[in-house]
């Protein structure tokens, strides 16, 4: 891809993949374009994400050095009202022995129809069952498969939900399992 001043201007501040081909080795890294100069050649300054160092990349010969924009994920979140979910869970437990109920907080990781989703679930099992039912508290959707950022956000939210759920059943016999588990279909 031939870089022009306009394409570099369009990529300013965006995450890019830089490939620098040398005589004996090729260096590939990701970073953000922070500046550029146009004296006799087009040179961009890229701040490496791994260490924050600024690297000058000469784009006058696209066979040697290239800069490609990396598609960043768009993450959207849908949340349900925890108070309503608490009422729904209480209704489900109404005729059950509290000491037979086990609650778990899990994150369901699914990629389907070109969309990555992470659902934060409150799951429960009654008696010897491994799984009885669940409610979804939050859903994190991403445009990229396996989006680490969306997963981290979902796990962070799941830990918050776990603290809330522990508070709900603090004075009951219902067992709330420690920790958050991420599982795949």
List the helices and strands and how they pair.
Elements: H1 5-11, E1 15-21, E2 26-38, E3 42-48, E4 54-58, E5 65-69, E6 75-79, H2 82-93, E7 101-112, E8 115-126, E9 133-142, H3 148-168, E10 175-184
Parallel strand pairs: 7-10
Antiparallel strand pairs: 1-2, 1-5, 2-3, 3-4, 6-9, 7-8, 8-9
Structural description of this entry:
The radius of gyration is 24 Å and the shape is rod-shaped. By secondary structure, the protein is of the alpha+beta class. The mean pLDDT is 87. It has three helices and ten strands; from the N terminus they run αββββββαβββαβ.
Question: How would you concisely characterize the structure shown here?
Answer:
With 185 residues, this protein is an alpha+beta fold.
